[in-house]
Design goal:
Blueprint: H1 11-14, H2 18-38, H3 47-64, H4 69-93, E1 95-97, E2 100-105, E3 110-111, H5 113-131, H6 144-158, H7 163-180, H8 184-204, H9 208-218, H10 229-241, H11 252-255, H12 267-300, H13 304-328, H14 346-371
Antiparallel strand pairs: 1-2, 2-3
Helix pairs in contact: 2-3, 2-12, 3-14, 4-5, 4-6, 5-6, 5-7, 5-13, 5-14, 6-7, 7-13, 10-12, 12-13, 12-14, 13-14
Length: 372
Amino acid sequence: MSSLGPGLVPQPLAQLPWKVILLVLAIGSFGLVVLFSAAGGNLYPWAWNQGVKVFVFLGMAIALSRVPERWWALGTFPVYTVILLMLFGVELLGAVAGGSQRWLELGFIRLQPSELMKPVIVLTMARFYEMLPVGEIRKFGAIWPAAVLIGLPAGLVMLQPDLGTALMITGCGVIVMFLAGIPLRLFIGGALLLAVSAPLAVNFLLHDYQRNRVLIFMDPESDPLGTGYHISQSKIAIGSGGVFGKGFLNGTQSHLDYLPEGHTDFALATMMEEWGLMGGVLLIIAFGLLIGWGINVGLRAKTRFGRLTAAGLSGTIFLYASINMAMVMGLAPVVGVPLPLVSFGGTAVMTIMICLGILMSIDRESRRVTRW
């Protein structure tokens, strides 16, 4: 997908998928415009910091694209083990912020291991099913090890507590299980079991604030000034934007502080108030193009590991975008999943760029094999 001739730039740069990189920059730049507006027309405190993170992590993604695919496969289980130990470390030594214990203080950086687990669980599942003989895929031995590999980090993240990230880790792993060929009847049975056990989980496993979010999702108008305030104001902001929006810097819900978290989890509502339905549709198309490219990378991959990894990482980006959009529009409970490259926060940007870097690595490998 390179649009640069090899005679104009060094070959490693010319081989990069520049159309995808420019698409990512376009989404990120639009996010900076949203954050600029959310701050009342100021670069600080959000737009400037976010811009630095986007460019730094994009550079990291380009560096990761040079890693051979086989290195990702060989390093998967050791990296999974290290991050799992980090999650245990969070429980013992983690920093507390906003009532949650999710970070490790490493002196020069505050690291959130649960974010790193999102792409790593995809790599781990892909490596496991690559190593598994094809004839074993429909047997119980193809299911219980994968369930343990997913359940351990998801359970530790639930203890932090972080329901949204736990669901993301579980969803990313289950996507790879499905694509690996696990029988559909098992997913149907699991969904039925989940539906039956959901009331017990809501009443006995979730924290009070998480339980309230689920109940508010079922009846948003039951507490419009309390637990339901976020989603009520989000719907007002989106609805008031209409088709073409109120115009840049003319949003009232966010600028008058009616919309909580208008620069993080509810950045989409801030954007759609000013840019309207058309802005939302363009953003969905942009994410769709990015996810479609990732799926095509998987279709072109020459190894089972590459195909499963590319499809799983594309699914990760899809889950990020779809869960946030559904949450902001009241179609899903509020679970604290940001909109990547738009919501303020470096962790989501880092995760998306790691996914992008690995996808570019698999794409480069498949094109190299094709030339040979």
